[in-house]
Design goal:
Layout (H helix, E strand, L loop, with lengths): L1 H9 L3 H17 L16 E3 L2 E3 L3 E3 L10 H5 L5 E7 L12 E4 L4 E4 L8 H10 L6 E5 L10 H12 L5 E5 L14 H22 L5 E5 L5 H11 L6 E4 L20 E4 L3 H15 L5 E4 L5 H9 L4 E4 L1 H6 L2 H17 L1
Parallel strand pairs: 3-4, 3-13, 4-7, 7-8, 8-9, 9-10, 10-12, 12-13
Antiparallel strand pairs: 1-2, 5-6, 6-11
Helix pairs in contact: 5-6, 6-7, 7-8, 9-11
Length: about 350
Amino acid sequence: MYRHLRPLLFSLEAEAAHGLTLYALGVAQRSNLMRWVAHPPPADLPVRAFGIDFPNPVGLAAGLDKNGEHLDALGALGFGFIEIGTVTPRPQPGNPKPRLFRLPEHEALINRMGFNNDGVDALVRNVEQATWHGVLGINIGRNKDTPNERAADDYLACLERVYPLASYITVNVSSPNTPGLRDLQQGDSLQRLVGTLIEARERLAVRHGSRKPILLKIAPDLDDAQMDSVAAVLRGSGIDGLICTNTTVDHSGITGALHAGEEGGLSGRPLFARSTEILRGMAQRLGEEIPLIGVGGVLAGSDAADKISAGATLVQIYSGLIYRGPWLLTECVEEIRRQKSDIE
Protein backbone atom coordinates (compact mmCIF):
# COMPACT_ATOMS: atom_id res chain seq x y z
CA MET A 1 0.00 0.00 0.00
CA TYR A 2 2.78 2.44 0.86
CA ARG A 3 4.10 2.66 -2.69
CA HIS A 4 0.68 3.96 -3.75
CA LEU A 5 0.50 6.47 -0.90
CA ARG A 6 4.07 7.79 -1.22
CA PRO A 7 3.41 10.13 -4.17
CA LEU A 8 0.62 11.79 -2.19
CA LEU A 9 2.77 12.12 0.91
CA PHE A 10 5.72 13.45 -1.10
CA SER A 11 3.45 16.11 -2.61
CA LEU A 12 3.06 17.57 0.90
CA GLU A 13 5.59 19.59 2.85
CA ALA A 14 7.86 17.09 4.61
CA GLU A 15 6.94 17.82 8.22
CA ALA A 16 3.22 17.94 7.38
CA ALA A 17 3.52 14.55 5.65
CA HIS A 18 5.28 13.18 8.73
CA GLY A 19 2.40 14.23 10.97
CA LEU A 20 -0.22 12.92 8.55
CA THR A 21 1.52 9.54 8.30
CA LEU A 22 1.59 9.07 12.06
CA TYR A 23 -2.06 10.13 12.33
CA ALA A 24 -3.06 7.66 9.59
CA LEU A 25 -1.12 4.86 11.28
CA GLY A 26 -3.03 5.56 14.47
CA VAL A 27 -6.36 5.41 12.64
CA ALA A 28 -5.39 2.13 10.97
CA GLN A 29 -4.30 0.60 14.27
CA ARG A 30 -7.46 1.63 16.12
CA SER A 31 -9.63 0.40 13.22
CA ASN A 32 -7.94 -3.00 12.95
CA LEU A 33 -6.68 -2.15 9.46
CA MET A 34 -2.97 -2.65 10.07
CA ARG A 35 -2.93 -5.81 7.93
CA TRP A 36 -3.36 -3.48 4.94
CA VAL A 37 -0.42 -1.36 6.07
CA ALA A 38 2.29 -3.82 7.08
CA HIS A 39 3.16 -7.48 7.55
CA PRO A 40 5.15 -7.66 10.81
CA PRO A 41 8.10 -10.03 10.84
CA PRO A 42 7.65 -13.25 12.79
CA ALA A 43 9.12 -13.17 16.29
CA ASP A 44 11.61 -15.92 15.54
CA LEU A 45 14.90 -14.01 15.54
CA PRO A 46 15.35 -13.03 19.20
CA VAL A 47 18.44 -11.16 20.35
CA ARG A 48 19.70 -10.54 23.86
CA ALA A 49 21.68 -7.36 24.50
CA PHE A 50 22.25 -5.07 27.49
CA GLY A 51 20.42 -7.69 29.57
CA ILE A 52 17.26 -7.20 27.49
CA ASP A 53 15.50 -9.78 25.29
CA PHE A 54 14.55 -8.27 21.93
CA PRO A 55 12.00 -10.18 19.77
CA ASN A 56 13.99 -9.21 16.68
CA PRO A 57 17.09 -7.08 16.06
CA VAL A 58 15.51 -4.23 14.07
CA GLY A 59 14.21 -1.20 15.91
CA LEU A 60 12.88 2.28 15.25
CA ALA A 61 15.41 5.08 15.75
CA ALA A 62 14.69 8.12 17.88
CA GLY A 63 13.22 11.19 16.20
CA LEU A 64 10.17 9.78 14.49
CA ASP A 65 8.01 9.79 17.64
CA LYS A 66 9.58 12.45 19.81
CA ASN A 67 6.81 12.58 22.41
CA GLY A 68 5.84 8.91 22.58
CA GLU A 69 2.37 9.70 21.22
CA HIS A 70 2.21 6.87 18.67
CA LEU A 71 3.56 3.83 20.48
CA ASP A 72 0.51 1.64 19.92
CA ALA A 73 0.47 2.24 16.15
CA LEU A 74 4.23 1.92 15.72
CA GLY A 75 4.34 -1.14 17.94
CA ALA A 76 1.80 -2.87 15.68
CA LEU A 77 4.32 -2.69 12.82
CA GLY A 78 6.45 -5.34 14.54
CA PHE A 79 9.62 -3.50 15.55
CA GLY A 80 11.95 -5.40 17.83
CA PHE A 81 12.20 -2.22 19.87
CA ILE A 82 11.15 1.41 19.64
CA GLU A 83 13.18 4.42 20.72
CA ILE A 84 11.30 7.66 21.37
CA GLY A 85 12.57 11.20 21.95
CA THR A 86 14.80 13.10 21.99
CA VAL A 87 13.05 14.55 25.03
CA THR A 88 14.20 17.52 27.11
CA PRO A 89 13.21 18.53 30.64
CA ARG A 90 11.13 21.51 29.45
CA PRO A 91 9.00 21.78 26.32
CA GLN A 92 10.61 23.63 23.45
CA PRO A 93 9.42 24.47 19.92
CA GLY A 94 12.63 23.60 18.10
CA ASN A 95 13.96 25.57 15.18
CA PRO A 96 11.80 27.68 12.84
CA LYS A 97 10.00 25.94 10.00
CA PRO A 98 10.70 24.72 7.37
CA ARG A 99 13.22 22.43 9.05
CA LEU A 100 12.80 19.06 7.33
CA PHE A 101 13.71 18.49 3.68
CA ARG A 102 13.55 15.49 1.33
CA LEU A 103 16.17 14.73 -1.30
CA PRO A 104 14.45 11.90 -3.22
CA GLU A 105 17.17 11.47 -5.83
CA HIS A 106 19.55 10.61 -2.98
CA GLU A 107 16.98 8.83 -0.76
CA ALA A 108 17.99 11.28 1.94
CA LEU A 109 16.63 13.76 4.45
CA ILE A 110 18.05 16.93 5.97
CA ASN A 111 16.61 18.01 9.29
CA ARG A 112 17.29 20.82 11.70
CA MET A 113 14.39 20.10 14.03
CA GLY A 114 16.26 21.18 17.15
CA PHE A 115 14.84 18.81 19.77
CA ASN A 116 11.25 20.04 19.29
CA ASN A 117 9.22 18.22 21.94
CA ASP A 118 6.52 18.68 24.57
CA GLY A 119 8.86 18.07 27.51
CA VAL A 120 9.55 15.04 29.64
CA ASP A 121 6.34 15.20 31.68
CA ALA A 122 4.22 14.97 28.52
CA LEU A 123 6.27 12.04 27.23
CA VAL A 124 5.84 10.19 30.51
CA ARG A 125 2.07 10.68 30.37
CA ASN A 126 1.94 9.36 26.81
CA VAL A 127 3.97 6.26 27.64
CA GLU A 128 1.82 5.55 30.70
CA GLN A 129 -1.32 5.70 28.54
CA ALA A 130 0.00 3.38 25.80
CA THR A 131 -1.11 -0.23 25.65
CA TRP A 132 2.04 -1.37 23.78
CA HIS A 133 4.62 -2.71 26.22
CA GLY A 134 7.52 -3.83 24.04
CA VAL A 135 11.18 -2.92 24.43
CA LEU A 136 11.20 0.86 24.80
CA GLY A 137 14.22 3.13 24.55
CA ILE A 138 13.89 6.74 25.66
CA ASN A 139 16.37 9.21 24.20
CA ILE A 140 17.23 12.19 26.43
CA GLY A 141 18.90 15.53 25.77
CA ARG A 142 19.37 19.04 27.10
CA ASN A 143 17.27 22.11 26.43
CA LYS A 144 18.65 24.54 23.87
CA ASP A 145 19.05 27.35 26.42
CA THR A 146 20.89 25.18 28.95
CA PRO A 147 24.64 25.79 28.78
CA ASN A 148 26.92 22.78 28.59
CA GLU A 149 28.23 23.61 32.06
CA ARG A 150 24.78 22.67 33.38
CA ALA A 151 23.89 20.04 30.78
CA ALA A 152 24.20 17.22 33.31
CA ASP A 153 21.31 18.72 35.27
CA ASP A 154 19.01 18.36 32.23
CA TYR A 155 20.11 14.80 31.54
CA LEU A 156 19.66 13.90 35.20
CA ALA A 157 16.16 15.41 35.28
CA CYS A 158 15.12 13.37 32.25
CA LEU A 159 16.82 10.21 33.49
CA GLU A 160 14.96 10.32 36.78
CA ARG A 161 11.56 10.93 35.15
CA VAL A 162 11.79 8.26 32.43
CA TYR A 163 13.67 5.62 34.41
CA PRO A 164 10.64 3.62 35.64
CA LEU A 165 9.15 3.42 32.12
CA ALA A 166 12.17 2.83 29.89
CA SER A 167 13.70 -0.50 28.95
CA TYR A 168 16.88 1.49 28.27
CA ILE A 169 17.86 5.18 28.17
CA THR A 170 19.92 6.78 25.39
CA VAL A 171 22.07 9.84 26.09
CA ASN A 172 22.07 12.03 22.99
CA VAL A 173 25.22 14.16 22.76
CA SER A 174 25.43 14.03 18.98
CA SER A 175 22.61 16.00 17.38
CA PRO A 176 24.01 18.74 15.14
CA ASN A 177 20.93 20.91 15.62
CA THR A 178 21.40 22.04 19.24
CA PRO A 179 24.28 24.55 19.44
CA GLY A 180 27.27 23.20 21.34
CA LEU A 181 25.73 19.81 22.07
CA ARG A 182 28.40 17.83 20.23
CA ASP A 183 31.07 19.39 22.45
CA LEU A 184 29.79 17.00 25.13
CA GLN A 185 31.30 14.10 23.13
CA GLN A 186 34.79 15.36 23.83
CA GLY A 187 37.22 13.93 26.39
CA ASP A 188 36.74 15.32 29.89
CA SER A 189 33.23 16.63 29.15
CA LEU A 190 32.05 13.18 28.11
CA GLN A 191 33.78 11.51 31.04
CA ARG A 192 32.12 13.84 33.54
CA LEU A 193 28.68 13.45 31.97
CA VAL A 194 28.87 9.67 31.72
CA GLY A 195 30.20 9.37 35.26
CA THR A 196 27.41 11.54 36.62
CA LEU A 197 24.70 9.58 34.83
CA ILE A 198 26.06 6.16 35.74
CA GLU A 199 26.27 7.18 39.39
CA ALA A 200 22.66 8.40 39.24
CA ARG A 201 21.59 5.17 37.54
CA GLU A 202 22.98 3.12 40.41
CA ARG A 203 20.92 5.15 42.89
CA LEU A 204 17.82 4.77 40.72
CA ALA A 205 18.40 1.03 40.40
CA VAL A 206 18.27 0.68 44.17
CA ARG A 207 15.19 2.89 44.43
CA HIS A 208 13.24 1.07 41.69
CA GLY A 209 14.66 -2.40 42.13
CA SER A 210 15.77 -2.59 38.50
CA ARG A 211 19.00 -1.64 36.75
CA LYS A 212 18.20 0.02 33.40
CA PRO A 213 20.87 0.08 30.67
CA ILE A 214 22.26 3.45 29.61
CA LEU A 215 23.44 3.89 26.01
CA LEU A 216 25.36 6.71 24.35
CA LYS A 217 24.62 7.97 20.82
CA ILE A 218 27.56 9.42 18.89
CA ALA A 219 28.01 11.42 15.69
CA PRO A 220 29.31 10.09 12.36
CA ASP A 221 31.67 13.07 12.02
CA LEU A 222 34.32 11.83 14.47
CA ASP A 223 37.89 11.33 13.35
CA ASP A 224 40.14 8.49 14.50
CA ALA A 225 41.51 10.43 17.46
CA GLN A 226 38.00 11.35 18.62
CA MET A 227 36.88 7.72 18.32
CA ASP A 228 39.91 6.72 20.39
CA SER A 229 38.88 9.28 23.01
CA VAL A 230 35.26 8.10 23.13
CA ALA A 231 36.37 4.48 23.46
CA ALA A 232 38.79 5.37 26.26
CA VAL A 233 35.99 7.09 28.19
CA LEU A 234 33.50 4.25 27.70
CA ARG A 235 35.74 1.32 28.65
CA GLY A 236 34.97 0.42 32.23
CA SER A 237 32.62 3.40 32.60
CA GLY A 238 29.47 1.38 33.21
CA ILE A 239 27.89 2.45 29.89
CA ASP A 240 25.91 -0.50 28.56
CA GLY A 241 25.76 0.25 24.84
CA LEU A 242 26.70 2.60 22.03
CA ILE A 243 24.56 3.80 19.12
CA CYS A 244 26.45 4.55 15.90
CA THR A 245 25.37 7.08 14.59
CA ASN A 246 23.37 10.27 14.51
CA THR A 247 23.03 12.41 11.36
CA THR A 248 26.00 14.03 9.62
CA VAL A 249 26.86 17.67 8.93
CA ASP A 250 28.89 16.58 5.89
CA HIS A 251 26.78 17.32 2.80
CA SER A 252 29.52 16.63 0.25
CA GLY A 253 27.72 13.54 -1.02
CA ILE A 254 24.69 15.55 -2.17
CA THR A 255 26.41 18.50 -3.84
CA GLY A 256 24.17 20.13 -6.42
CA ALA A 257 20.93 18.59 -5.17
CA LEU A 258 17.92 20.69 -4.30
CA HIS A 259 18.11 21.53 -0.56
CA ALA A 260 21.77 20.44 -0.38
CA GLY A 261 22.64 23.85 1.01
CA GLU A 262 20.13 23.67 3.88
CA GLU A 263 21.66 23.55 7.34
CA GLY A 264 21.02 20.44 9.39
CA GLY A 265 21.84 16.79 9.79
CA LEU A 266 21.84 14.59 6.70
CA SER A 267 20.40 11.08 6.95
CA GLY A 268 19.42 8.34 4.54
CA ARG A 269 21.46 6.71 1.77
CA PRO A 270 24.41 9.19 1.81
CA LEU A 271 24.97 8.50 5.52
CA PHE A 272 25.33 4.73 5.19
CA ALA A 273 29.02 4.45 4.39
CA ARG A 274 30.24 6.88 7.01
CA SER A 275 27.96 5.67 9.79
CA THR A 276 29.02 2.08 9.07
CA GLU A 277 32.68 3.13 9.10
CA ILE A 278 32.21 4.64 12.56
CA LEU A 279 30.33 1.52 13.68
CA ARG A 280 33.14 -0.71 12.47
CA GLY A 281 35.78 1.52 14.05
CA MET A 282 34.06 1.53 17.43
CA ALA A 283 33.53 -2.24 17.27
CA GLN A 284 37.26 -2.67 16.72
CA ARG A 285 38.05 -0.37 19.64
CA LEU A 286 35.53 -1.80 22.11
CA GLY A 287 35.52 -5.45 21.13
CA GLU A 288 32.93 -7.49 23.03
CA GLU A 289 32.90 -5.11 26.00
CA ILE A 290 30.06 -2.83 24.85
CA PRO A 291 27.31 -3.93 22.41
CA LEU A 292 26.59 -1.59 19.50
CA ILE A 293 23.46 -0.49 17.67
CA GLY A 294 23.97 0.40 14.01
CA VAL A 295 21.87 3.16 12.48
CA GLY A 296 22.25 5.39 9.46
CA GLY A 297 21.34 4.90 5.82
CA VAL A 298 19.53 1.55 6.07
CA LEU A 299 17.40 1.50 2.92
CA ALA A 300 17.35 -2.26 2.27
CA GLY A 301 17.66 -5.54 4.07
CA SER A 302 21.23 -5.93 2.86
CA ASP A 303 22.12 -2.63 4.54
CA ALA A 304 20.85 -3.93 7.88
CA ALA A 305 22.83 -7.14 7.44
CA ASP A 306 25.93 -5.09 6.63
CA LYS A 307 25.52 -3.24 9.92
CA ILE A 308 25.47 -6.56 11.75
CA SER A 309 28.57 -7.67 9.84
CA ALA A 310 30.31 -4.43 10.81
CA GLY A 311 29.82 -5.18 14.51
CA ALA A 312 26.27 -4.21 15.44
CA THR A 313 24.15 -6.41 17.66
CA LEU A 314 21.00 -4.46 16.79
CA VAL A 315 19.96 -2.14 13.95
CA GLN A 316 17.68 0.90 13.83
CA ILE A 317 15.85 2.45 10.88
CA TYR A 318 14.15 5.80 10.28
CA SER A 319 14.80 7.63 7.00
CA GLY A 320 14.48 4.35 5.10
CA LEU A 321 10.88 4.12 6.28
CA ILE A 322 10.13 7.41 4.52
CA TYR A 323 11.34 6.00 1.21
CA ARG A 324 10.47 2.31 1.54
CA GLY A 325 7.58 2.20 3.98
CA PRO A 326 6.89 -0.38 6.73
CA TRP A 327 7.91 -3.32 4.53
CA LEU A 328 11.53 -2.27 5.10
CA LEU A 329 11.32 -3.59 8.66
CA THR A 330 10.34 -7.10 7.59
CA GLU A 331 12.90 -7.08 4.77
CA CYS A 332 15.66 -6.18 7.22
CA VAL A 333 14.72 -8.94 9.66
CA GLU A 334 14.48 -11.50 6.88
CA GLU A 335 17.88 -10.59 5.42
CA ILE A 336 19.58 -10.70 8.82
CA ARG A 337 17.99 -14.11 9.40
CA ARG A 338 19.14 -15.35 5.98
CA GLN A 339 22.73 -14.25 6.48
CA LYS A 340 22.78 -15.68 9.98
CA SER A 341 21.56 -19.03 8.62
CA ASP A 342 24.26 -18.97 5.92
CA ILE A 343 26.95 -18.46 8.56
CA GLU A 344 25.60 -21.23 10.77
